[in-house]
Amino acid sequence: PPPPPLLLLLLLPLAAAGRSRVQTEAEALLAAMPDHMLLHAPFTPFAQNGELNASKDVIGRLADQAQRMSVNTIFVGGSMGQFDTLTTAERKTLMTAWVAAAKPLRSLFVICQVGDTAIATAVELARHAASVGCDAIASVPPYYEKTDDADTIVDFLQPISAGAPSLPLFFYHI
Question: pLDDT per residue over 132-170, tens digit each?
Fold first, then answer.
């Protein structure tokens, strides 16, 4: 039987690799994820002057608090994280800080939302997410030019997924 739709989105970068490799890599991606995700989408911390405050101390305290509350998945830079108000550099800083804070805890799976209205920016963010050690990426669909056509959404997500081909991609439908 065909894989479920979410799995299809997770496997976009593997589609050209051949059936057996796709199956093997899909199993590896799924095995790396928590069996059950208790997901926390934190707000992005800002300083009093309105600048991003992604210091090791601030993000570290947020990660520790999430772990104490039995959270096992952090969703960085979603709508609760005000991604649409951050610059690309700020989004990269936030991803890097969360990965640095979460990895020593070993119990937090980090999903970084890389979606943007500009595909090139989303691809750049996906590459960054992979380079700093995010466990997965997520992307919003085109949100100014809304569509419910699956082929259009897949076409939009494919280059983003290809930017981080070793990471699962979650479709973040807001």
Answer: 999 999 999 877 777 778 888 889 999 999 999 989 999
Contacts of 170 (CB under 8 A, 6+ apart): 6, 9, 10, 111, 136, 137, 138, 139
Whether residue 4 contacts residue 40, with contact meaning beta carbons closer than 8 Å, is answered with: no
Rg (CA), the chain: 16
- Torsions phi, psi for 69 (to 5 deg): -95, 15
The reported pLDDT for the residue numbered 5 is 41
Contacts of 159 (CB under 8 A, 6+ apart): 119, 122, 123
Residue 12 has pLDDT above 70, yes or no: no
Confidence class of residue 56 from pLDDT cuts 50, 70 and 90?
Answer: very high
10 Å CB burial of residue 108 (0-12, 13-18, 19+) is buried
Of 94, 69, 67, 77, the closest CA to residue 41 belongs to 77
Name the phi and psi angles at 20, rounded to 5: -70, -40
- Find all residues with CB under 8 Å of 77, minimum gap 6, and list them: 44, 83, 86, 91, 94, 95, 112, 113, 114
Cα distances (angstroms) measured from residue 31 to each of 13, 34, 57: 18, 8, 31
- Rounded to two decimals, the pTM is 0.83
